[in-house]
Amino acid sequence: MWEQIRSNQVRSVILIALIAGLLLAVGYFLGLYFFDSAVGGLVIALVVWAIMSLIAFYQGDSILLGMAKARKIKSDDAPRLYNVVEEMKIASGLEKMPDIYIIDDPALNAFATGRDPSRASVAITTGLLQKLSRDELQGVIGHEIAHIKNRDVLLMAITSVMLGTIVILSWYASRFLLFGAMTGSGRRTSSRGGGGGAQAIILIVGLVLMILAPILAQLIYYAISRKREYLADASSALYTRYPEGLASALEKIGGSTRQLKSANQATAPMYTVNPFRKEGMKAADLTSTHPPISERVRILRSMAGGASLADYNDAYRKVRSGKQGIISKNAAAAVGAVGIRQASLSVPGELGLAPGKAAGKAAPGTHDASDIMLRLDKWRTVDCECGARWKIPPGFRDNNILCTRCGRRIRL
Amino acid sequence: MLCPVCHKDALIVEYQDIELDYCPACHGVWFDAGELELLMASAGFEDFRRYLEGILNAPEPDTPERKHKCPACGHKMKKAYIDRDNKILVDICKDGDGIWLDGGEIQHLVKTLAESSPDKGDSQGVLAFIGDMFKHQD
After folding, report:
1. N or C: which end of chain A has fewer CB within 10 A?
2. CB of A367 within 8 Å of any CB in chain B?
3. With contacts defined as CB-CB under 8 Å, which chain A residues touch B134?
4. Residues B13, A389: C-beta atoms closer than 8 Å
5. DSSP state of B90
6. pLDDT tens readout for residues A66-100
7. Which chain A residues touch B13 with a CB distance below 8 Å?
């Protein structure tokens, strides 16, 4: 396991260096073209990058959670969810319990964020809480905890910041270029009559870079994130000892066509499944941050006989019909054999419930997940004698409501 | 949720695991897409999504009624008829977030649909549910 993380880290460092190189190249040509000084451009690129990195490092997780409109919950808000996260925390050997956030969104998704394993958060949508059984949720949480444990969260933050810097620089450069051309500022061509040839080359290289750099950086970003998804899946299977949980959760998530409202391109790789996926998206898509869901499910389902990393590796080879596994041999061997456990009995949607209430409910698809959000927002709940339950927003001023079902007036 | 018509806080009423947003001021009701699906599924409507898409793809009728914004996504909603006789004009979110029925439209819908198709067993359960839910108004 550790060796795998390390080999992943080496590869990541190379990829990060590539992105950083791109960033510097963009800055270099930018400076050369606009200020006649490569150093100036480099300084600008580095300053922008440094500011963004500092913000990302210190405030990144709260910005992300804020952008996703996530709400932090405590153990008594959703005891069962808390319990599942705690289980996975222990199984993974994470030193500190991550903070748990809920996003009020019917879409099915989850993500992990944070600086390092001792300061991390997992966020899941209310839709997911509602639709998944305990085993499935455990699989998803296991996957997210694996991202924290494998230190993917910080890496994704670093790379996405660099990607963002490249995109911003290129965008502004191209605007300046257009604007400059339109106002017909002839400074660059007239002031330096001698270097016409070199000037043209710089312009062409600069232009090509401006167009290609964001695309290249994005491809590298995708390459980093996809590999880590497989490893997180393998770790989740290992932590839960029940690959079917994550497999069927992924299937449910894949079957839902609702898009997450608060996701954007930069945050996409953090989610369990790509929030922008459309129906019929191509399997081996280069621009996909996540491996195709169907393939992830197939690999998890082919894990016959065990839940260890070696079993995942075998399944990966079988499904991809290739020789190479996703996890190195030594890493897989270090974990040893791990058996698959039995399925636990649970219905979807019970995770948000207090333990006593779950047994009495027959129908799945309850609103307990959204009730948690309402409770956090200080809504009041009154039960009418006819069986209807009224939920009243905190700003409601009247002291009674009319139950439209039975005509009773309910005092508040 | 804010009522798309009077922009006041709407109440939520839950009955038999179906949750609907109800504005006590204008008596309008918001059917969230997820709740609609639950409701239709419990009544045995299978191609509900296709039905909804059919409504969404129909040409927008010419009407003086004021347009409202979807309480879920904030985009302008589309006016559409949901009954066969083109009498009940509702607001439907173009992104498929849900349907808004003005006060009175529900009772109208329940009445017309019950009269026009007394043989349709599937839809009766849903209509009865909705009708019962908002039977009493002041």
Report:
1. C
2. yes
3. 404-405
4. yes
5. E
6. 877 888 988 888 888 899 999 999 999 998 999 99
7. 388-391, 404-405
